[in-house]
Design brief:
Strand content: under 5%
Low-confidence stretches: none
Structural class: mainly alpha
Shape: globular
Helix content: over 70%
């Protein structure tokens, strides 16, 4: 039961990050919600970097679905633990950029914490 719950949560993380990546292509101004103040969403160079991030996000979500479909819960757990470094790093980036602490902790760090919790459940299963 706990493994099923962890798998569902991992799937939701995967779907969410895919949607974030797709949204970055569809509406680049949404990147301002990442938490970095004065995000130059109209700057062409910034949009190119945003596209790089969007591809990373989409691929990360696809990796989760591949592991859900064809791997053991243990392998998914290790992947989720490693991938938790991304939102943890994002939180640090927002904090170092003097962004809102609510976004750094409430979005990025919270996502990392959920991913670590999912990992623990899958690794002890």
């Amino acid at each position: 039961m706990l493994t099923t719950t962890a798998n569902v949560l991992a799937g939701l993380i995967g779907a969410g990050i895919i949607l974030i990546g797709v949204n970055a292509f569809r509406a680049p101004q949404a990147a301002a919600g990442f938490g970095i103040p004065d995000t130059p969403t109209e700057d062409r160079t910034f949009r190119a970097w945003l596209a790089v991030k969007a591809v990373r996000d989409i691929a990360s979500g696809i990796f989760i679905f591949i592991l859900l479909a064809g791997a053991t819960p243990h392998l998914l757990g290790w992947f989720m633990l490693a991938a938790a470094g991304m939102p943890a790093g994002d939180a640090l980036i927002v904090l170092r950029s003097d962004g809102p602490k609510a976004v750094a902790y409430g979005v990025h760090a919270a996502t990392a914490a959920v991913m670590v919790a999912i990992s623990v459940v899958l690794l002890v299963a």
